Amino acid sequence: MPGAAGTEAPSCTRGSGSPGPAHPPPPPFRLIVLGDSTVGKSCLLHRFTEGRFPGPLHSDPTVGVDFFSRLVEIEPGKRVKLQLWDTAGQERFRSITRSYYRNSVGGLLVFDITNRRSFEHVKDWLEEAKMHVQPFQIVFLLVGHKCDLVSQREVTREEAEKLSSDCGMKYIETSAKDATNVEESFTILTRDIYELLSQPLELHFGGRILSWLIIIATLMPRELC
Ligand SMILES: Nc1nc2c(ncn2[C@@H]2O[C@H](COP(=O)(O)OP(=O)(O)OP(=O)(O)O)[C@@H](O)[C@H]2O)c(=O)[nH]1
Ligand SMILES: [Mg+2]
């Protein structure tokens, strides 16, 4: 287990100003998108990867899991490939979707700001994900989706921010319909994961808390790269 108690990590010769070899490009990040059915996960992914909103008549419930991918630029000249797993929110597909948690380094936990029950289920999704990735961890971003539907809002920004901070996540509000914050949500999450991956390498290569991310990212199967 990475970072297990009593395991001393080797020091790293990189960082601390020494020239060292150039950083290799980061491996693809596997991200998972979770949340109740109809909160808009698939539309969010279509908007992000294809730049379009499927619309009410063209968005069927996801069956099991769908796959998307895209490059994202986290700083000028530095791009990360994202492998994006869009999971079905319907309970009947849960046994399939659960098997995708383990290999993910991050995820969007989506609720619909016009659907209070989807907000109330956020903690359940988080618990479920935590249970299935142990002993590893996933970096989640909490997403309040459909923010174009202002007049139908059932969840305030303040209570969503409170929940995200209680759970150690950032919070953002998005709309696939008018494209609000879609780019930003994926960029923020990718940047946060990238920074976590970089830190232990710069400081002390076996950092107990974060080394799991490096291990997962490094050992990812390459068939989808
Ligand atoms: N107004 C508005 N409607 C949206 C938005 N995103 C999605 N929708 C609508 O919400 C409904 C459900 O969208 P989906 O993307 O299929 O929802 P899902 O979370 O993938 O659902 P499952 O696949 O069953 O888990 C559709 O009718 C979409 O048109 C948005 O940003 N604004
Ligand atoms: Mg879907």
From TrEMBL:
<keyword id="KW-0342">GTP-binding</keyword>
<dbReference type="Pfam" id="PF00071">
    <property type="entry name" value="Ras"/>
</dbReference>
<dbReference type="GO" id="GO:0030659">
    <property type="term" value="C:cytoplasmic vesicle membrane"/>
</dbReference>
<protein>
    <submittedName>
        <fullName>RAB39A, member RAS oncogene family</fullName>
    </submittedName>
</protein>
<dbReference type="GO" id="GO:0005525">
    <property type="term" value="F:GTP binding"/>
</dbReference>
<dbReference type="GO" id="GO:0120281">
    <property type="term" value="C:autolysosome membrane"/>
</dbReference>
<dbReference type="InterPro" id="IPR001806">
    <property type="entry name" value="Small_GTPase"/>
</dbReference>
<feature type="region of interest" description="Disordered">
    <location>
        <begin position="1"/>
        <end position="29"/>
    </location>
</feature>
<keyword id="KW-0547">Nucleotide-binding</keyword>
<dbReference type="InterPro" id="IPR027417">
    <property type="entry name" value="P-loop_NTPase"/>
</dbReference>
<dbReference type="InterPro" id="IPR050209">
    <property type="entry name" value="Rab_GTPases_membrane_traffic"/>
</dbReference>
<dbReference type="GO" id="GO:0003924">
    <property type="term" value="F:GTPase activity"/>
</dbReference>
<dbReference type="GO" id="GO:0006914">
    <property type="term" value="P:autophagy"/>
</dbReference>
<dbReference type="GO" id="GO:0005886">
    <property type="term" value="C:plasma membrane"/>
</dbReference>
<comment type="similarity">
    <text>Belongs to the small GTPase superfamily. Rab family.</text>
</comment>
<dbReference type="InterPro" id="IPR005225">
    <property type="entry name" value="Small_GTP-bd"/>
</dbReference>
